[in-house]
User: Which sequence fits this backbone?
């Protein structure tokens, strides 16, 4: 980000620096390779005027980094290749930013907790926090599992910017709708006695899932209800932190 916000002493370079920074931020505002998003949504995510977003999108379309579709805009394969290393950096930044929330939740409840994202249709567990005697139990948090086969993936899909309906049956579609309505997914942990995985979304400013927060909790109704409430609160705090961080990053870029 420091490189993006550095301003040349040559005043003639300012428009080029601003335009380049906005193009990079706009590419980064797409939450997945398959997402189709409109100008208004992108403008809200970046706090940019719609006219600016539209102008930069035209440049990116002409350069082959973005496809213009009837329903909006989508990243091209060229942009996906360009951003492969940036995705890793973005996930690392997300982990660093939200790790204190996971630690606080675990210390307050004693429950193992994890942070997950979706990359390339797979659920990736980017962080786990648990006690020394909970290692085996914490293995229940999946990694590199197809999103539609994971309880964390169902939350990320339900609250995702776009949902690919191809190949999804009616029951799976109804399940995603139910998860979105309830704002939580609960699934018994296979191979353990009396534990469930509870997953809630970490929502960004557009109410889309930037990540998922999962906890392993005893399946007794009272304990399940109590820890689900605490997990929702932790996810809300994560969302506030993430939104504030992204706004600070956006305002650090000079206007064109």
Assistant:
């Amino acid at each position: 980000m420091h490189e993006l916000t550095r301003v040349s002493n040559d005043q003639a370079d300012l428009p080029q620096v601003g335009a380049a920074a906005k193009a990079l931020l706009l590419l980064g505002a797409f939450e997945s390779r398959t997402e189709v998003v409109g100008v208004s949504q992108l403008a809200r995510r970046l706090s940019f005027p719609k006219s600016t977003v539209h102008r930069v999108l035209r440049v990116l379309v002409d350069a082959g980094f973005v496809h213009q579709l009837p329903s909006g805009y989508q990243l091209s394969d060229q942009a996906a290749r360009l951003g492969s290393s940036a995705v890793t950096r973005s996930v690392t930044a997300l982990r660093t930013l939200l790790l204190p929330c996971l630690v606080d939740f675990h210390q307050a409840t004693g429950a193992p907790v994890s942070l997950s994202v979706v990359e390339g249709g797979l659920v990736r567990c980017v962080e786990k926090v648990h006690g020394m005697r909970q290692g085996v139990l914490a293995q229940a948090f999946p990694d590199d599992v197809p999103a539609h086969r994971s309880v964390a993936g169902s939350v990320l899909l339900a609250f995702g910017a776009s949902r690919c309906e191809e190949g999804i049956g009616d029951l799976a579609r109804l399940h995603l709708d139910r998860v979105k309505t309830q704002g939580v997914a609960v699934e018994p942990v296979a191979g353990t006695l009396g534990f469930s995985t509870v997953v809630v979304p970490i929502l960004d400013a557009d109410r889309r899932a930037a990540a998922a927060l999962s906890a392993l909790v005893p399946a007794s109704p009272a304990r399940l209800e109590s820890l689900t409430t605490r997990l929702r609160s932790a996810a809300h705090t994560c969302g506030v932190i993430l939104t504030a961080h992204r706004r600070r990053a956006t305002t650090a870029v000079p206007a064109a």
About this structure: The CA atoms of residues 105 and 234 lie 7 Å apart. The chain has two domains: 2-82, 84-245. The first strand starts at residue 66 and ends at 69.
